[in-house]
Amino acid sequence: MLFKKFAVAAAIATTLAFVGCTKNEATTDANAAASEAVEAATEAATEATEAASEATEAASEAVDAVDATTEVAASEVAASAAQ
How many Å apart are CA 60 and CA 19, to the nearest integer? Predict the structure, then answer.
């Protein structure tokens, strides 16, 4: 969501730089704003990728824990049935 907001801001700033800004100073400001927005969007995307990677790792660990719990429960049931 944050990435989309930065992308929209970058698109608007770039459009203003090319269409609506006739003064060189305003164009420079718009280009700088667009560059900052693109940089922020890239950073947000990187952070989102890192968070997704961490979530994937946590999910994998949870699956391993469930597998271990299932094995213990199955062993207990088998031991109880044997008695």
Answer: 50
Read off the pLDDT of residues 2-45 as tens digits, 9 standing for 90 and up: 667 767 777 777 777 666 655 566 667 778 888 888 888 888 88
Q: Give the whole-angstrom CA distance, residue 25 versus residue 23.
A: 5
Please state, in angstroms and rounded to a whole number, the distance separating the CA atoms of residues 1 and 7. Answer: 10
d(CA 30, CA 15): 9
Tell me how far the alpha carbon of residue 11 is from its chain's centroid.
20
DSSP 53: H
Domain ranges of the chain: 2-82
In order of 7, 26, 35, 66, the CA distances from 22 in angstroms are 23, 7, 19, 63
